[in-house]
Amino acid sequence: MIDLSKYQTIIFDCDGVILNSNFQKIEAYRNTAIRYGASENQADQLAQHHIKLTGISRYIKFKFFLKEIMGEEILEASMNKLVKTLNEEVIKLLNNCEIASGLKELKSKTLKARWMVASGGDQDELRFLFKEKNIDSYFQGGIFGSPTSKHEIIENKFKENTFLPALFLGDSLYDIQTAQKYNLDFIFIYGWTDFDEWKKVCQENELNYIEKIHDLI
Fold first, then answer.
1. To which H or E segment does residue 121 belong?
2. Whole-angstrom Cα distance, residue 127 to residue 122?
3. Which residue in 18, 164, 16 sits closest to 102, CA to CA?
4. Which of 22, 60, 139, 210 has CA atoms 20 to 30 A from the CA of 120?
5. Helix (H) or strand (E) run with residue 84 in it
């Protein structure tokens, strides 16, 4: 297993890593589409598109939904309505979702490292949920999300002299690709992932993987 003591920064994805929320998010997208006026089939198409693009901003997913699924123009009013509805659905579904065990113990084991969140979830939504769950204080490196992409979040952090070396904990193909793009050490957390091909991809890329954060303690 990787020596955690060498890292200046530990980057956490949120859904499927810190929170057991991947499948609640799928339901939130489906409910949002229905509330917008989509059919069951169209709502399922959005949910499947979300799964395919796990970790990527909801703004990109909703543009696809409007243009390719609903056959509509991408209007600011429609985007705002979808984002607002999804926010309501996510807050409702995620308020009671499970938090990864072992965060406090891992924090005490990695006192040298600054923790941060780089998520595809909405940034204001993340900060609200983390505060509600009393885990926001762990992430002194910041809690970041969309509309800023993970790539942009990490590129901004590269400007800080104390960022590297860094370890990324994620559960999606996009997380793997992000870590590879920026040459970051990576551990795949598979216990709550919705990425069916995770093991094959991890083995092909010789990536470390564990079931849950608690396994790092």
1. strand 114-122
2. 9
3. 18
4. 210
5. helix 76-94
CA distances from 70 to 34, 78, 82, 86, 91 (A): 12, 11, 13, 17, 25
CA gyration radius, the chain: 17
Which amino acid does the sequence have at 162?
Answer: T
* Cross-sheet strand order for the sheet of 166-170: 143-146, 114-122, 9-12, 166-170, 185-189, 208-210
List beta partners, residue 11: 116, 168
**Burial class of residue 77, CB neighbours in 10 A (0-12, 13-18, 19+):** exposed
- pLDDT, tens digit, 9 for 90 and up, residues 46-96: 999 999 998 888 999 999 999 999 999 999 999 999 999 999 999 998 888
